[in-house]
Task: inverse folding
């Protein structure tokens, strides 16, 4: 992570800025001095609003040394996140569409899919950063990184992280790509995980009591799915159990009747989640949906043997659940919890960082894009695409790490072409 030191941060009064196409008014913002890259810069971050992507949205601009560097636009979840979305660029300043395009220095940022954060007309499918509107150090660093980006492309884009730590000498030459062989090896790893689960039981977390709650209480399962973002899976799946301990009861009605208690329970030290405002808001909203649409019983979400597609759509109607979590939930319910679900050919792989890295490095996917990876899963295992999800996730987490993949020990090493550089920038918990 690049060090940035901010000094002399001042709140700004409303001001206007003249673009070539006209004047824009800003309601306020901050001025600051930033020391980064061995130099000191004058900066300004202005907050206003203007029509963009189908409606009036919060709009921010960050200047460095008097020059506009980056802009941010209100995300769809702005009411709970107060976050803005700002496109990432590659050399030449075109939109960054693949992880390999992402510039060094963005390792600590929340890198997102622009179209998933702003689902609106003209919202591009490209990568972006999601930053709270008042996170001045992050806006200053984002602006400085943009100022370092060449305006003209000069050959290959810079890779975010140089791959390292692969002991190539310990391995035979990498095989050429055989997608079917990789898929077979993934499914074999899935069978080995299933055998392990039979002997050791389900292990969402290291705590047997937290695991039992997930298995026995559908509402706890739903809350864990919502919480599974930005923190390690084990911590997310323990959240319902720890939340129950901190509340006076644990049901949709209890959460809806006292949202402040839910916020306080999540924010109490040790905090139950990294996103201490967004996640409690989503938990309360989810409880309200369960009350309004599922007669207060989350089990009704999957009652009546829905198809995989129907269940995915129902899950996606909850706040905080997108393609990744909905696809994951369908697989866990069917595979691990034995919930009857029809037409599993409508299941999908979850677009998760670990799966993405493995799909890229094994050559199953040639670029990092949700639709592409889902299509790859459907083509390789049409009877149940979601069956490829857990083995790829597990391999990505345990062996195919971003910077130091352990190819010699990896269950895919005999079939993987080891395209290491492809996945190095796909990071996350
Ligand atoms: S760890 Fe190595 S062998 Fe395993 S999937 Fe990643 S690149 Fe392929």
Result:
């Amino acid at each position: 992570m690049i060090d940035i030191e901010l000094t002399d941060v001042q709140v700004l009064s409303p001001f206007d800025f003249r673009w070539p196409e006209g004047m824009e008014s800003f309601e306020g913002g901050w001025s600051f001095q930033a020391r980064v890259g061995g130099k000191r810069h004058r900066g300004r971050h202005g907050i206003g609003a203007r029509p963009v992507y189908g409606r009036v949205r919060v709009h921010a601009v960050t200047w460095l040394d008097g020059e506009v560097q980056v802009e941010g636009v209100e995300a769809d979840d702005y009411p709970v996140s107060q976050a803005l979305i700002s496109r990432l660029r590659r050399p030449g300043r075109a939109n960054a569409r693949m992880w390999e395009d992402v510039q060094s220095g963005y390792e600590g940022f929340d890198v997102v899919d622009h179209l998933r954060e702003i689902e609106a007309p003209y919202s591009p499918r490209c990568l972006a950063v999601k930053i709270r509107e008042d996170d001045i150090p992050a806006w200053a660093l984002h602006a400085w990184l943009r100022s370092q980006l060449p305006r003209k492309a000069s050959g290959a884009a810079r890779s975010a992280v140089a791959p390292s730590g692969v002991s190539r000498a310990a391995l035979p030459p990498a095989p050429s790509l055989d997608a079917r062989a990789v898929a077979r090896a993934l499914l074999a790893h899935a069978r080995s995980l299933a055998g392990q689960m039979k002997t050791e039981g389900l292990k969402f977390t290291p705590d047997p009591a937290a695991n039992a709650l997930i298995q026995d209480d559908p509402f706890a399962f739903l809350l864990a799915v919502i919480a599974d973002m930005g923190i390690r899976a084990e911590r997310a799946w323990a959240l319902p159990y720890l939340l129950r301990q901190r509340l006076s009861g644990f049901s949709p009605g209890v959460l809806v009747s006292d949202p402040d208690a839910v916020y306080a329970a999540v924010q109490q030290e040790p905090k139950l989640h990294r996103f201490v405002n967004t996640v409690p808001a989503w938990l309360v909203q989810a409880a309200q949906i369960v009350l309004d649409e599922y007669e207060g019983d989350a089990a009704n979400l999957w009652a009546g043997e829905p198809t995989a597609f129907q269940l995915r759509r129902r899950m996606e109607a909850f706040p905080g659940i997108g393609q990744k979590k909905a696809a994951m939930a369908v697989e866990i319910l069917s595979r691990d919890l034995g919930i009857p679900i029809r037409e599993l050919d409508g299941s999908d792989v979850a677009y998760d960082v670990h799966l993405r890295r493995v799909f890229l490095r094994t050559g199953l996917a040639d670029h990092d894009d949700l639709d592409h990876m889902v299509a790859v899963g459907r083509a390789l295992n049409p009877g149940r695409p979601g069956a490829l999800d857990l083995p790829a996730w597990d391999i990505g987490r345990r062996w195919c790490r971003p910077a130091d993949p352990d190819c010699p020990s990896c269950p895919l090493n005999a079939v993987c072409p080891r395209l290491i550089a492809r996945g190095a920038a796909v990071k996350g918990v």
Observations:
- The chain is about 40% helix and 15% strand.
- The beta strands are 4-12, 15-19, 22-36, 39-52, 55-64, 67-74, 83-87, 111-113, 127-132.
- The radius of gyration is 23 Å.
- Residues 358, 361-362, 395, 399-400, 405-407, 410, 412-413, 416, 418, 420 surround iron/sulfur cluster (CB under 6 Å).
